[in-house]
Amino acid sequence: MSERVRVICPLNESDERTLADDVLDGLTRPFKELAPKHFYDETGGELFDQICDLPGYYPTRAERSIFEADGAEIVAASGMAELVELGSGTAEKTMILIDQAAAAGTLQRYVPFDVTEAMVRRCSEICGERFTDAEIIGVVGDFERHLEYIPPPIEGAPRVVALLGGTIGNFVPGSRRQLLRAIAALLRPGIDHLLLGTDLVKDPAVIEAAYNDSAGVTAAFNRNVLSVINCSLDADFDVDAFEHVAFYDRGQEWIEMRLRASRAMHVKIAAIPLAIDFASGEELRTEVSAKFTPQRLADDLGAAGLKLEKTWTDSEGRFALSLSSPVV
Fold first, then answer.
1. Does any domain span residue 101?
2. 198 falls within a domain
């Protein structure tokens, strides 16, 4: 790392309790659930990259196609000098957009923000080599808790905060709007923008196929959250005793991913400590992934003090990127 390329890692001992706190809260509810952000250890990140390449998993390809077709227009509309990407991962598809900002001569800074330190460091190094005229500041953190560690904006330079990949859909409506309000607080009226990726409501069969691949990669990704708990919290989940379940809830217009116990079991989580029982057939919710209509998107943004300015979709209307700004 150098002065131009650096990583901020503000996590302390209390932050390391995040997983423990979330597990204790989620597994002691009447209907057990876990936060989907805990999928993404190194193995989970690798499995998700494999999911993105599966034939039936359309969101990544659809979002990438929007960057390829409309990236220059997004840069021009926002004046993007700084891009802060929440949940950046490898930033593979985002680099298409960063390339456009670099080509336009506006790019001054890229801030990849992710919970996995190794991924942030690798992403920062790659971007530092690729974008030699820009400052690269990686931030290791949970964007529900650590947004204050994002560096102050560059004076007079338009900032774009991006939350891509349909990640906003992993939050139920109240939490979704709370997160959007926190992101809006990072934006200066009249100069900065939010770039938001949202999966759209469509044929339920298309949506369900994206989360139920025949190769079993999504199932392995889903079960990996139990491996994370076993490794990090000294638990004894029998990972292979849980079946992957994913279905589209037409009333809520979201996908639910669950893990179903194939037999009765008693699980100990020594680091909390906690002991819990699963009945045979009992389900544990690991993710929701909401799908959006134009009205739902506008309503959620409006509730967060943001005004929708423009939306781009892929050629099949499956996924959308939207640009919004704080209401003055």
1. yes
2. yes
